């Protein structure tokens, strides 16, 4: 049975020698190698025309660089959203003025860093996977740009950014228990969809930073640069270079390179554990025995008496005990050393969904946050507090009252400003 992925026919043209400098590093991946290096060996180049022909029917827009500069105010730092292994991401706005026929909407434009570790293959995988699928829990790719060396991706804008930011960045208020459940169910549905299509896809990079949130905390998967076709026919696995992110990748995959959909299930278990505990999957700042989250938490997952010890303190006890126990037992299964004992993602969805209905949420004491002297906004709720926050008419305690008062726009600006300050010294100015 052939292990050649469905998009391989397109790849023999992807890496000309002039594009060698795109190959390949990644900020966090385990091995600094191209994710699709086993697909392409040819040096000829897939033309943008070939690509648009292959994507007929996908509804993707082909943008010029000039149009995307217009959409993002020349990639101004005021529009900067963040940066990952592929390159920087900018907020933009597209409408008829940018390109006739476009629906007016906010977008996120991801720009390949030509001096970075990823390249054309990751870009192409993203275009081909997201061009092929549409699903409520996969981020929508609106279009792309392929001009000379430049490679860009244009996505729907996800107003609440990544789950990683909400879990681990200081200036975001703590997510409520129900919001955490909702996010895990959404992300689980995205993975289940990929695993259950006619030609299953293994996502390979399931992690908190790749789960994006809309204004209502609906989760969508992003970043398909490492995605692979799953085993076909009688195959039990595919063999591939080990790629992914430390702490999230399944142990058997790291050891053998054998990849199955169950590798994604392990990564899902790790993210669920981050949602339960509020801790990062790997944290070198903690005592040695606590650095690897899965190892540290595993003994408590199947023991209701110990579970409280590992729950995120910022939940302040405001969670369903029965729900947390069910989630913990599910996480225990997902993190099983044996891939066969891990559940299918469709079973994960079926286990998680009923937990939203559990009624045993403790009633929190009313917390009055006195307005500061320079407070001009009274005690009105911010968007983010409304979406994430008070349930059943109760006000939720904030991590920090002053930070909780930031609007979404202010939050984005604040994040951008902080990241910009960090990056300013390293980043060369973008060509306007
Ligand atoms: N569609 C989008 N809408 C809003 N923000 C986005 C969107 N896509 C990415 N971002 C933001 O841009 C930042 C960088 O995202 P990116 O996916 O490039 O990197 P990452 O996930 O942090 O790292 P990695 O390269 O390991 O995946 C993130 O902080 C994310 O919140
Ligand atoms: Mg990402």
TrEMBL record:
<feature type="region of interest" description="Disordered">
    <location>
        <begin position="372"/>
        <end position="411"/>
    </location>
</feature>
<feature type="domain" description="Protein kinase">
    <location>
        <begin position="75"/>
        <end position="356"/>
    </location>
</feature>
<dbReference type="InterPro" id="IPR008271">
    <property type="entry name" value="Ser/Thr_kinase_AS"/>
</dbReference>
<keyword id="KW-0547">Nucleotide-binding</keyword>
<dbReference type="GO" id="GO:0004674">
    <property type="term" value="F:protein serine/threonine kinase activity"/>
</dbReference>
<feature type="compositionally biased region" description="Acidic residues">
    <location>
        <begin position="372"/>
        <end position="382"/>
    </location>
</feature>
<dbReference type="GO" id="GO:0005886">
    <property type="term" value="C:plasma membrane"/>
</dbReference>
<comment type="similarity">
    <text>Belongs to the protein kinase superfamily. Ser/Thr protein kinase family.</text>
</comment>
<keyword id="KW-0418">Kinase</keyword>
<dbReference type="Pfam" id="PF07714">
    <property type="entry name" value="PK_Tyr_Ser-Thr"/>
</dbReference>
<keyword id="KW-0723">Serine/threonine-protein kinase</keyword>
<dbReference type="InterPro" id="IPR011009">
    <property type="entry name" value="Kinase-like_dom_sf"/>
</dbReference>
<keyword id="KW-0808">Transferase</keyword>
<protein>
    <recommendedName>
        <fullName>non-specific serine/threonine protein kinase</fullName>
        <ecNumber>2.7.11.1</ecNumber>
    </recommendedName>
</protein>
<keyword id="KW-0472">Membrane</keyword>
<keyword id="KW-1003">Cell membrane</keyword>
<dbReference type="InterPro" id="IPR000719">
    <property type="entry name" value="Prot_kinase_dom"/>
</dbReference>
<comment type="function">
    <text>May be involved in plant defense signaling.</text>
</comment>
<dbReference type="InterPro" id="IPR001245">
    <property type="entry name" value="Ser-Thr/Tyr_kinase_cat_dom"/>
</dbReference>
<keyword id="KW-0067">ATP-binding</keyword>
<dbReference type="GO" id="GO:0005524">
    <property type="term" value="F:ATP binding"/>
</dbReference>
<dbReference type="InterPro" id="IPR050823">
    <property type="entry name" value="Plant_Ser_Thr_Prot_Kinase"/>
</dbReference>
């Amino acid at each position: 049975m052939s292990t050649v992925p469905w998009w391989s026919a397109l790849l023999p043209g992807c890496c000309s020698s002039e594009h060698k400098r795109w190959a390949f590093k990644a900020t966090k991946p385990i091995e600094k190698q191209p994710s699709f290096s086993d697909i392409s060996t040819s040096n000829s180049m897939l033309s943008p025309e070939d690509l648009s022909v292959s994507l007929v029917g996908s509804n993707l827009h082909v943008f010029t660089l000039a149009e995307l500069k217009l959409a993002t105010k020349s990639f101004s730092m005021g529009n900067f959203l963040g940066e990952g292994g592929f390159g920087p991401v900018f907020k933009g706005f597209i409408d008829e003025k940018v390109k006739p026929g476009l629906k007016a909407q906010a977008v996120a434009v991801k720009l390949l860093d030509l001096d970075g570790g990823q390249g054309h293959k990751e870009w192409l995988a993203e275009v081909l996977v997201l061009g092929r699928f549409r699903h409520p829990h996969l981020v929508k790719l609106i279009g792309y740009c392929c001009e000379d060396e430049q490679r860009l991706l244009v996505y729907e804008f996800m107003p609440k950014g990544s789950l990683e930011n909400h879990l681990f960045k200081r200036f975001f208020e703590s997510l409520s228990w129900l919001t955490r459940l909702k996010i895990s169910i959404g992300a689980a549905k995205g993975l289940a969809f990929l695993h259950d299509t006619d030609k299953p896809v293994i996502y390979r990079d399931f992690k908190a930073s790749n789960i994006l949130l809309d204004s209502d905390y609906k989760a969508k998967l992003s970043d398909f640069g490492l995605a692979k076709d799953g085993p076909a026919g009688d195959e039990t696995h595919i063999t591939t270079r080990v790629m992914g992110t430390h702490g999230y990748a399944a142990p058997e995959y790291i050891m053998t390179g054998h990849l199955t959909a169950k590798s994604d299930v392990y990564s899902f278990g790790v993210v669920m554990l981050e949602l339960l505990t509020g801790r990062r999957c790997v944290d070198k700042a903690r005592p040695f025995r606590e650095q690897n989250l899965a190892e540290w938490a595993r003994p408590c997952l199947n023991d209701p008496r110990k579970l409280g010890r590992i729950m995120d303190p910022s939940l302040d006890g405001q969670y369903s005990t029965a729900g947390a126990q069910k989630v913990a037992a599910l996480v225990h299964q997902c993190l099983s050393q044996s891939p066969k004992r891990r559940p299918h993602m469709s079973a994960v969805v079926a286990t998680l969904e009923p937990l939203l209905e559990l009624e045993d949420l403790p009633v929190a004491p009313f917390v009055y946050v006195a307005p500061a002297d320079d407070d001009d906004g009274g005690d009105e709720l911010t968007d983010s507090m409304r979406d994430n926050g008070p349930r059943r008419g109760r006000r939720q305690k904030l991590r920090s009252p002053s930070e909780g008062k930031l609007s979404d726009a202010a939050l984005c600006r604040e994040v951008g400003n902080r990241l910009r300050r960090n990056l300013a010294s390293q980043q060369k100015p973008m060509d306007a």
